């Protein structure tokens, strides 16, 4: 499939997703799977399946990380507040119960933590990218500990998930725009995205969220992104 054909198909998926977002809350997972399919991305999951009510924490490389996690497992996503404005996907995300976080307003973090904890207590898994931004290559960011408090408060397992790609063309960093990144991904032939789930961490009541964040990141192997073999 050529990049032009992929972009045309992707536009169709996004238009249908915009309509589906109005009709039902399951639109996000359906659309995420369709985006993966039309872009020709192979998603590989390794490791145990997370049990419902788990906090999934992953390193962050690309906007595709979000799409892949939504496609492979039923989760509520924690996303940056500007994802609300993404074409079609933003609307579907809102309908699917995505929890939006505004890291530029620290005063809102306690409310976000309470919202994540409530979802976990209700048996919904939640996925978050604690680095707060994307990284490419051997560089990685420190896992920010704030949202780990939600797992402690809810008594929920924390499942670290390593995200890696077999091409750096999939990275979405720096001054890159979403549009340019989508076009670049559409041109890649045979892109593979690998998700590896580490054994769940089960925090005790009163655990230190900073210690938990460090343990989760270290379990990913070198604490960050690595290019898939």
Report on this structure.
This protein has about 230 residues and is of the alpha/beta class. It is about 40% helix and about 15% strand. The protein is built from eight helices and seven strands; from the N terminus they run ααββαβαβαβαβαβα. The protein has helices spanning about 5-25, 25-40, 65-70, 90-95, 110-120, 150-155, 180-185, 210-220, and strands at about 40-45, 55-60, 75-80, 100, 125-130, 160-165, 190-195. The chain has a seven-stranded mixed sheet, sandwiched between helices. The longest helix has 21 residues, at about 5-25. It is globular, with a radius of gyration of 17 Å. Mean pLDDT is about 80; it is low at about 15-25 and about 220-229.
Q: Can you list the strand order of the major beta sheet?
A: 1-7-6-2-5-3-4
Fraction in helix: 25-40%
**Rounded Rg:** 17 Å
Morphology: globular
Strand content: 5-15%
Note the main attributes of this structure.
single chain, about 230 residues, alpha/beta, seven-stranded mixed beta sheet, globular, disordered C terminus
What's the topology here?
Blueprint lengths: L2 H21 L3 H12 L3 E5 L8 E4 L4 H10 L3 E5 L8 H7 L3 E3 L7 H13 L4 E3 L19 H7 L3 E8 L12 H10 L4 E6 L11 H10 L11
Parallel strand pairs: 1-7, 2-5, 2-6, 3-4, 3-5
Antiparallel strand pairs: 6-7
